[in-house]
Amino acid sequence: MADEFIKGLGIFTAAGLGWMVLAGWYRTSSFETSRQLIEPVTSGGTLFDSIGVLLMDGLFWFALLGALTFWVLIPVFRQTREALRERRA
Questions:
Q1: H or E segment to which residue 55 belongs
Q2: Spatial separation of the C-alpha atoms in residues 53 and 72, rounded to whole Å
Q3: Hey, where are the domains in the chain?
Q4: Is the Cβ–Cβ distance between 75 and 1 less than 8 Å?
């Protein structure tokens, strides 16, 4: 169980840090506003800006789904499999 926890934490930390860096670049128009990191993306920009925004959204979902997978889904699957093995035996 500790192995799954640290994998989920690593994914959550690394992807969350990547998302925060990119959100600071693309979703923060000014640091005086209270809506930092959650403003809508306003820069039409270049191809690299589009790639950055796409990567930002991908890292956000990877952080959430990766942590959910290792913290909830894999342990539930293992517990269910073990319970079914005990019932058969």
A1: helix 47-68
A2: 28
A3: 2-88
A4: yes
Which tokens sit at 2? 């500790």
Neighbours of 30 (CB within 10 A): 8
For 3-40, how does the pLDDT look when each residue is reduced to its tens digit (9 = 90+)?
Answer: 899 999 999 999 999 999 999 888 887 777 677 777 88
Supply 45's token pair: 């920009």
CA dihedral 26, 60, 57, 53 (to 10 degrees): 30
In terms of pTM, does the model score above 0.85?
no
pLDDT digits (tens, 9 = 90+) for 1-11: 788 999 999 99
CA angle 21, 38, 6 (to 5 degrees): 50
